[in-house]
Amino acid sequence: MTRPALVAWIAARLWLLVSLAAAPAFAQTPLSPTEPVELTRSGQFYLADATEEPPDADRLAEWLARKTPVDHVSLLGGRYWFHATVRNDAPATQWVIDPHASLMEHVGGWVYVGAQPPQTFVTGYHADTPYMLHYGSDITLPRGSSAHVLLRIDSRYFARLPGIDIQTRADYRRIVISENVLALFALGALLTLALYNLFMFLGTRDKALLYYALYLLAATAGWGLTFHLPAQWLGWHGLQWHYLPFFLMVVFNTLFYIEFLQLREAAPRLAWAGYANLVLALVLLPSCFIATSWAHTLATITITISLTLALVAGLLRLWSGYLPARYFLAAFLALLLPALVILPANLGLSQDMVRNPELITLLGSTADAILLAFALADKIRLLGIEKDGYLVQLHRALDQASTDALTGIGNRHAFDRALSALTAADSSVGLMLVMIDLDGLKRINDERGHAHGDALLCEFSRQLQTLRDHDMTVFRLGGDEFAVLGDMRHEDETRRDMRRFEERLHAAGFEGCGISFGIAFGSEITSSSQLLIHADARMYRHKSTKRDAPESAAQAFNPRRA
Questions:
Q1: Would you say the pTM of this structure is higher than 0.90?
Q2: Are residues 180 and 169 part of one domain?
Q3: Positive or negative torsion for Cα 381, 262, 330, 304
């Protein structure tokens, strides 16, 4: 061996000795039989290179000494080793190592127990995991043994800082069942609400229902991908599609709250701010395919902006008295509370405060969806009340437009509508029209004043209204002209009533007044105008006969057709 080669060999051995001396003493983490142990609190992440795992525990310290330790993984993805040492003093021997809290594409595991060959497992997004919707893998640790846990984690991005727990297999199974039931229930609720509101939109064409349904469909797709349902159920792995639904959630949520809160009219600046964030989400959406590592962070930013704008808009609309904003605010608070815990971790600003942040956020999204459904129902209820109020006002306006202000009976407008409807009906042949002139009104106005003339009109109208007992309708057409619509079967009673009305008017102090009338029948004519002409002609004939031959005119009151 040449002298330079010898020097290089000695330097390499000295560097190895120094590295081994500087290698940290492995602190053993005791396992708990009752609760999960977070290995990330005591373990260490290292940057990964092309080297393979050590074949046994004896070479682990030397192997780790060559690695570069890091405080945490980068959310933009990468390759990392993780090492922790545990000691099992618990009676349980069946354990589960559970990488969680973030998507991880590939996770390889080696567990070194004494001189035994390492226990190995593979889990992660692309693996066939033994536990549905979870990354947990089974290991065996004899009681009283110590073990080195070594994981190789590769991923194009991390949703947040990964957690790595170890707990008994029985406890882990219970947690998996509970979390899966909650996750599937929440996803089912989102999908059900989406389809229901889409069906409601088809019937009502309310855009708020459409945007809400599309928002829920995007949420269902996004959370289904987050929980790896397509990967584990269908074997479809498309990581670049994972955040596409979340960008679309921003789009549809923005359209929904702008439409629901009527921001274009009530708060146009907030509406434009929402549209700007919508455009931002669409601009950033291609990052799912061309910059997958950044998609999670960019989606988190647009979602945060969208939630903030929605919250501000809801507060402003509630402050302005828009009552449907009550449930809207409750819905976004249900989503915002878990978001305040989750979103900082999504941006790498803090550690997760809960074991399964995806599940907490999914449950918050489901509560948000249910409360938004209440908000839509409340809006529909209030719109119904408002519509009923408008209908009442409309009916009142129609009544006022169809009522004579002085006498309270129907006016000319009401008469025209009633006559047109009755003459157009199949039963018009039995229709009877009575045209009436109140004689002497002008003379009473001139001699005794208009107040006395108005009193005469009101008294005569009260008399006419007694005809309603025969299902007849009475109208004042203007001035001293009146009309009655009814059935021709009541012709005789009507003639007698006209004589009685005249006598009552005289008894009430309105001497000098009289009643002239003419009757026409639907069986005589083919149109409403002809009916009017016939009745008018007979009324004027009766008036002239009263003037020229009073005795003959009296016969009109007898029970026979005039």
A1: no
A2: no
A3: positive
